[in-house]
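User:
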Amino acid sequence: MEHKNLAIEVLKKLLNDEIKSRAKKNIIQSKTLMEMLEKSIKKYHNKILTAVEVIEELIQLGKEIQAMDKEPSEMGLSDYEYAFYSAIANNKSAQDVMGKDKLRELVIVLFQRVKDNASIDWTIKESVRAKLKVIIKRTLRKYGYPPDMQKIATETVLKQAEQIANEILSDTK
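Assistant: Predicted structure:
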């Protein structure tokens, strides 16, 4: 193939743009994908991979992105619920202890509670934010989310909720 470097740059740009657009909905998924992209590019720059190998890796990453697109519907979750699922399932001990079905059930309840308690200024107003934090913690505890990771999960869910705040509020109207 001629112009391998050009092909790499085009693939990198396409994947980077796709990952950035996903960051608006799912911060955990976009972070994971960005790390995968950067790892492949770094291997290429460090001459661990040839141009052809990095092109193959980037194409494979594109296929993984397509596969990820199917996960929410396969699990019976909306895109926003799946974003919350990514936030709490990011913890290996939670996956082991709770299992996929219980995490799915927790996500549906968690998303609904955040949605019901989100107000127009909740990302700014500290009292509303604190109330949401308590609601998230109680919900996680109620469903038996591993205590070792509850604080991180609470913060991640809050960040995820802030990321999709406008969509959450428009869904409640």
